[in-house]
Give the backbone structure.
Amino acid sequence: MDSYGLDGVSEGVLHEVTRRTPGFHAWQDPHWPVHCHHAAAFLGEVGYRELAAHPDAPDQLRQDLRTDGWYDAAQLEQCLTHIGEGATTMLFRCTHLAYVDAS
């Protein structure tokens, strides 16, 4: 099975993602984001319009692309706005968020 970049997660989480979770096909080596020491939930493949509905996601992609060497802001935005036209984004969300509501 391909590596999903699940470093730092428990064996149970690794088993869940690699054996029991529907995956996705990637052009490059697949990467499964980890947050809170747990695998994020895969929401699906999206284009720019769907991605823009989740404001934190494009911001994270901008940060990741800058880390990968995309320093030209105009080129980076051109890339993001054309997602879905030859490039696809895999959308994930963190599964461990909670808050307390008390009177």
Q: What stands out?
A: The beta strands are 34-35, 38-39, 41-46, 89-93. Residues 13 and 38 are 7 Å apart (CA to CA). The first helix runs from residue 11 to 20.
